Every structure is written in structure tokens, then in C-alpha cells.
Amino acid sequence: MSEQFSSQLLERAVDAFSGLPGVGRKTALRLVLFLLKQDSEIVKTFAQSILDFRNNVKFCKTCHNLSDTDECEICGNPKRDRRKICVVENVQDVLAIENTQQYQGLYHVLGGIISPMEGVGPSDLEINSLVERVKAGDVDEVILALSPTMEGDTTNFYISRRLEGQNIALTTIARGVSIGDTLEYADEVTLGRSIVNRVAFKEQNH
Amino acid sequence: MSEQFSSQLLERAVDAFSGLPGVGRKTALRLVLFLLKQDSEIVKTFAQSILDFRNNVKFCKTCHNLSDTDECEICGNPKRDRRKICVVENVQDVLAIENTQQYQGLYHVLGGIISPMEGVGPSDLEINSLVERVKAGDVDEVILALSPTMEGDTTNFYISRRLEGQNIALTTIARGVSIGDTLEYADEVTLGRSIVNRVAFKEQNH
User: Fold this and answer.
1) What is the Cα–Cα distance from A59 to A73, expressed in whole angstroms?
2) What is the DSSP letter of B119?
3) Element of type H or E holding B180
4) What residues form DSSP beta bridges with A59?
5) Which B residues 82-141 touch A at CB under 8 Å?
6) CB pairs under 8 A between A and B
7) Separation CA A77–CA A58 (nearest Å)
8) B41 touches chain A (CB under 8 A)
9) Do A95 and B30 touch (CB under 8 A)?
10) Of A62, A141, B154, B179, which is least packed with CB atoms within 10 Å of its CB?
11) Neighbour count for residue A7 (Cβ, 10 Å)
């Protein structure tokens, strides 16, 4: 863009924001001018919290989730079921599953998904460390909770091969029609899978 | 939201971003995780440029545009036509008009618009300083370039009353800008034309 700001300070602040994903120049300008109206302490806290996060946040040495300490709160929580490991692609997925309040086991964050198109191979992901955790014993179930895409299926398959011979149950999260969705509007693949993978009525409604 | 982050640092960074206008928790999380992937120097520059802007940017003592110095680049530029003052609502409007490259005069940023609904009266705006600039002489035209809304019309009318008796041409930008549209989002050609084809204030309001 050919915009000429009357202020270098403004220019640099707009550049900073417009470097973020999904933020264009106009949105960046709006955000910067919003911050100008805020108390300078608020802006200081804003900048400091971002710096603190970037410089001090750690990845849990066990599950690779984001953490303030070497071991994350979930891995360090004695109330969690240490015999279950839920394998997810990224940190957002941990949050999504935690928000359901339906899972009390541990996690393993791969840090991505196998994608030949994007040049992401198994060695780029935390798969070796997952295998080590399982081999160390004390685990009786690994739950694969990756996206139901071709990459997800590939990654699931690769992990299942690496875990062959281990004395664990290997499961994937159920795929099916969303709760509250009408059959009419479910996509064919999902609906097809949910028929093939049907479960006993009593099992589902216990 | 009931989200529980495993990291306080993450929590605070997401809080910071989600305080921005139009940024929800999910977008904030995405932005924060994006910054985590960036080089720490880039994040440092990001935070620093925002702090520098907030702490050091000034308002031009003459036109109240954003500036790095006491007098902005436009007011200090000897090539600009000092006999014309274009009155705008805010800093974005200066940028919008500058981008048309159709105007070579000076500006006057009101810092808002008269709006009884939002409790903004004439004394909250830089109207007295505009009258002083005109009374000081050396000005032969004041161009009112406010948004064509009811508030804009009210402000135009108020300013025209305050400038009565001054030996100047009082014009408004041509209403090529669609009624109800704000200047910020008008396309450059329309906005440029509307400045070139500005009309006498009295002609328009007969």
C-alpha cells in the first residue's frame, strides 16, 4: 500500500499489528488508534504480557503442552488418570478437550500433523517422545484425537504402527453426527461413518 | 468464558489481545500462538513499537494530527498551500485524504464530531483552535470534510456559525461520498473527486 503516515511511530505500530495473521492495514490502524486512547499503563501491561509470554512460556517436558513450569499443570496434577494419554495436534486442541470437562487423563501434543504437502514428516513431530512415554509403561490407553482429515488419518496410521506390540488399547475419538445436528444436514462422509461405526444403544446412553 | 489455560502467561497474553476491539478469545489465542512461533526479536520489536507509539507520539500543536514532533510533517511542509484548511473528524480521515493525492493544503483534526447521543459537544472538540487559526489570518478557505451523517451536518453547521463574518470561503467536500458512508471506508477515487469538486457551504444548504 502507498499509505504515507505523518508519523514514523504510527507507521511502525501499524506495521507491527499488520504482521499478525488476518490483520490488514486498516484493522491495524484501528487497533493502534484504540491503544492510543487507552491509559498508558494498560498499553504497558499489554506489551509486557506479550513479551513475558514469548520469553518465559515453556513447553511441558512430558506432554509438550504450553506451561509456566517445566512440567505442566495437567501432567503435575495427581488427580489426573495417568494411565491414559490423549494425542492431539496442537495446544488449542488441549484447550478444546479440557473445556468439555469429559476427560481426566493426560495429553501428548504432537506439535503438528504429518503432511507431505507442507513438508511435515514424523521426525518434525513429538512422536518419538510419545513412543517413549508408552514404552516406559504405566499407560494402558492411547487416544488418538487428530482431525478427521487425510493428514490426520495418515498420522493416526503412522502412530499405530510405531505403537505396535505395546500392551495398550489404541482408540480414536468417535466420529459421528454432531449432537443437535439433524441427519438431513450432516455431510455424507460423516453420516456414512456414523452408520458403519454404530454403537450399542445401551453403551451410548449409560 | 470458562476456559482454563494451563499457563498463566498464556492466559494473560490472550487477555491482552482479547481486550482489543473486534478480537475475541479464539482470535486472541490464534494471535498469541502465532507470536510464539516468531523469533523473539520480532516479538520484542512488536511490543516495543507499540510502547514507543503510545508513549512518544504527539498531537501536532497546530492541526492536532498525529506527529513525531511538536509540529506535524504536513504543517511543517513549505510546499503545502497554507491558505487552505481541511477540517476532518479524526486521524484516519487525514490519511484517507492524503492517499487521494488531490489535496495540498493543511488540515485541522477535530478529534471527533458533535454527537448529543454520545455526549460529545463542541467544547470536547478542537473547534476553538480552528476559529483561532482562521482569525489569525492567512487562510482563505476552510473545507469541511466530515462524514455525511446527521452528526457531520450538525458539526458543519456549528462550525459555519462560529466562522461567520470571517473573510474566507467555507466549502464542504462534494457529496460524492455515499450518504451514510464513513470517510475511512470510501474509495480513493470518489473521495479524491469529492475534494476537487467541493462546493460552497451555502450553495449546498439552501
Assistant:
1) 11
2) T
3) none
4) A66
5) 90-92, 94-95, 98-99
6) 171
7) 17
8) no
9) no
10) B179
11) 22
Reference A43, options B99, B4, B57, B78; nearest CA is B57
Distance (Å, whole) CA B169 – CA B146? 17
Q: A6, B74: Cβ pair inside 8 Å? A: yes
Cα–Cα distance for residue pair B40/B47, rounded to 1 Å = 11
| Portion of chain A with pLDDT greater than 70, in percent | 94
Q: Is B80 on the interface with A (CB under 8 A)?
A: no
Amino acid found at B128: N
Q: What is the DSSP letter of A186?
A: S
pLDDT tens for B8-54 read: 999 999 999 999 999 999 899 999 999 998 999 999 999 999 999 99
Residue in chain A lying closest to B98 (CA):
A4
Distance in angstroms (rounded) separating the CA atoms of residues A205 and A67: 36
C-alpha–C-alpha distance, residues B68 and B61, integer Å: 11
Judge if B8-56 and B78-204 fold alike in CATH terms. Answer: no
Topology, domain A8-56: Helicase, Ruva Protein; domain 3 (1.10.8)
Which triple of cell numbers denotes residue A199? Answer: 454403537
Distances (CA, A) of A5 to A2, A9, B60, B94, B98: 10, 9, 13, 9, 9
Q: Is B67 in contact with A6 (Cβ distance < 8 A)?
A: yes
- CA-CA distance, A172 to A87, in Å (whole number)? 9
d(CA B109, CA B69): 16
Q: Looking at this predicted complex, what is its ipTM?
A: 0.79
CATH placement of domain A81-173: 3.40.1360.10
Q: What share of chain A is helix, strand, coil (3-state, %, to 5)?
A: 45, 15, 40
Structure-block grid coordinates of residue B28 = 486472541
Question: Are B19 and A43 spatial neighbours (Cβ–Cβ below 8 Å)?
Answer: no
B179: left (phi over 0), alpha (psi -120 to 50) or beta: beta
**What residue spans define the domains of chain B?**
8-56, 78-204
Q: Which residue from A112, A66, A120, A118 is spatially nearest to A89, judged by alpha carbons? A: A112
- DSSP-assigned letter for residue B178: P
Nearest to A60 by CA among B10, B199, B198: B10
Cβ count within 10 A of residue B82: 15
List the CATH code of the domain at B78-204: 3.40.1360.10
Give the CA radius of gyration of chain A.
22
